[in-house]
Amino acid sequence: MEKLEEFLEIGGTKKDIAFLVISGIALLVSMLDLIPLPFDAAWVAIILCGIPIILEAVIGLVTAFDIKADVLVSLALIASVIIGEDFAAGEVAFIMQLGALLEDLTVAKARAGIEKLVHLTPRTARVISEGQETVIPAEQVCVGDILRVLPGETIPVDGVILSGQTSINQAVMTGESLPVDKSAGDEVSSGTVNQFGSFDMRATKVGEDSSIQRMIRLVQSADAGKAKIVGLADRWATWIVVIALTAAALTWIFSGQIIRAVTILVVFCPCALVLATPTAIMAAIGNATKHGFLVREGDALERLASVSKIAFDKTGTLTYGTPQVVEVKSILPGLAREELYLLAAAAEQRSEHPLGKAVVRCCRQEISKELPQTEEFQMIPGQGVAAVVQGRRILAGNRKLLAREGMTSVPSLLESGKLYDDRGCTVIYLSVDGQPAGFLALSDTVRPESGEMVRRLIGLDVSPVLLTGDHESAAKTIAGQLSIEEVHADCLPEEKLRFIESCQKQGQSVCMIGDGVNDAPALKKANIGIAMGGVGSDIAVDAADIALVDDEVKELPHLLALSKRMMVTIKCNLTFSMALNFAAIILAITGVLNPVVGALVHNTGSVLVIINSAFLLKWKKRT
User: Fold this and answer.
1) What DSSP character marks residue 438?
2) Could you tell me the sign of the dihedral formed by the alpha carbons of 455, 456, 461, 467, in that order?
3) How far apart are CA 356 and CA 378, in angstroms?
4) 439: part of which helix (H) or strand (E)?
5) Of 53, 473, 549, 608, which has the most beta carbons under 10 Å away?
6) Pairing of β 384-389 and β 374-380
7) Does the global pTM surpass 0.85?
């Protein structure tokens, strides 16, 4: 059914374009009298473009007494036809349908991405009962059931680990860039991924209470609560209709000439008013596309222009989202930094842990040497690895591994490591042949353009906020580097949502920029959501109004400045079109304009509005 609706939408757009092309040719034939016909060719435009406008106006009035701009257009069309001004009627119908088509082309269908989010929910679970393992549908898991999760599987429900050690990728819920080691007694959430090592767990929250289902409900509720901007012409339609009818009636009464009254209705048609907004939006969208932005909602730039606060997710947005080795420190006399690095990378070669893989990757990037061969590799779950490299026994792991090997008696090593812990880094301690040798510090790294981007946003009177699921120490370290004063760390999806709601209750318009599944509810709830399209989750992109296709965050200030410039253009267009309409009315009242000339005059205004909007295509803020 959804596929059919999508097909009909596409087909409807093609049909509208075809009708406009045919109507335009017909109006040209009518104006130049190119082909002798038994009827005025303008009737083709009246039928193809005018009748749909009249039908929509009638339906709106009858079903909901909804007075929109098409009511006045319908009156002008009917009046023009009654007095025989067929060309004026066809011209007005053509211009109005052109404006409607432009609006349709700027408004993309909002896809919540909820279906993709549902697909993250595991379909099955391994239940352990009386020593037997049975695979059942995930929705049949009950609180208290004992489940087994194998390496690479997604955790089906929320629960507590009973036995086993592993590393969990929690990015779907928290956005954390680094996996989290888990062991007996630790809580795990549905939708997160078991990296390696099997474990048994007890189910604590199942079905609708599980974390991934709460996420789905958050996205749905946030989408439902987001207000859509109504077209200005439709907001003012009631007053426009009243003023136009009053002016036309009084002119007819006092002048006795119905043609003047019809001319008033024709020139008062809000063609330029209808075109003022969509043409500017289309031009601005074209400009944004050149700078790597995919604008998925027609009114997204309107909303962006009014934001006072921009909330950033950290991982994958302001940072690259992949762990990098930022420090290699050797404390063993005679062991150089490079040699320690090579030994550590060699020991991690066979590791399945994401941090081990990061060490190997970074070492190969930095040191152009072949890694030594590894022997007697041993994975120590929850602690690290052990291996023999070039005849040396290497240990690489956390403090638990040091304690196990009795090497916690080197306070200088632990103190140096703690300094990096406090900065939000993950520290891998190393020993060589039973002696403490040093450590590696890994951290997510800031995009080089992020600092300048934040400073330019501040220059546009927008307050940046760091809103992340990462730990407080890591969040504050990144915020300090980027001069972001407001920081909210350890945020779950619902906490990000609540922060945006609290800002909106205070009258602040908020833009959310993120890349992960955990950002989807906040992206939906925010006044405007921008997703990182290159590295971001498909679900985050579907939840957002705008996607940054190439992840060049340095372009965000341009987008914000462009949205503000677009609103200035729209206001200029509206002011000009209304002034022209009132001037044309005065000329129509005095009899200077007839319906055909009146239509041409006020449609000239429409052309000028389009030209003014077109300047946005190549606009760029001067720095």
Assistant:
1) E
2) negative
3) 13
4) strand 435-446
5) 53
6) antiparallel
7) no
Q: Return the CA Rg of the chain.
A: 32
User: Where in the sequence numbering do the catalytic residues fall?
Assistant: 313
Pairing of strands 199-205, 146-149: antiparallel
> Which runs of consecutive H residues, i.e. helices, occur in 33-85?
42-45, 51-64, 69-82
Output b/e per residue, 307-335; b: 16+ Cβ within 10 A.
bebbbbbbbbbbbbbbbbbebbbbbbeeb
Contact 125, 159 (CB under 8 A): no
Of the chain, the end-to-end C-alpha distance in Å amounts to 50
Whether residue 548 contacts residue 555, with contact meaning beta carbons closer than 8 Å, is answered with yes
Angle (CA) 516-521-526 rounded to 5° is 105
- Strand, helix or coil for residue 154: strand
Long-range contacts of 212-215 (CB under 8 A, 24+ apart): 212/117, 212/120, 212/121, 212/172, 213/121, 214/493, 214/494, 215/117, 215/173, 215/191, 215/493, 215/517, 215/518, 215/520, 215/521
Amino acid identity, position 591: G
Tokens of 540: 């985050």
Cα(518)–Cα(172) distance, rounded to whole angstroms? 5
Distance of CA 457 to the CA centre of its chain: 18
CA distances from 90 to 15, 25, 43, 229, 407 (A): 18, 11, 6, 30, 89
Note the pLDDT tens digit of each residue in 522-579. 888 898 988 876 555 566 666 678 877 666 788 899 999 999 999 999 889 888 877 8
- pLDDT tens readout for residues 118-177: 555 678 899 998 888 888 988 889 999 999 998 888 888 889 999 988 888 776 655 555
Q: Which two tokens stand for residue 192?
A: 């997160």
In which residue are the tokens 């921008």 written? 530
| Residue 386: other Cβ atoms inside 10 A | 19
Distance of CA 560 to the CA centre of its chain: 14
The two three-digit tokens of residue 442, written as one number: 């890994």
Structure tokens at 545: 């109004």
Model pLDDT for residues 103-127, shown as the tens digit of each residue: 565 443 333 343 444 555 678 899 9
pLDDT of residue 269: 65
- Mean pLDDT for 316-332 is 85
Strands 486-488 and 463-467: parallel
Q: What is the SS3 assignment for 230? A: coil
Measured distance CA(47)–CA(610) in Å, rounded:
25
Cβ–Cβ < 8 Å for 232, 277: yes
SS3 for 420-437 is HHHCCCEEEEEEECCEEE
Distance CA 248, CA 262 (A): 7
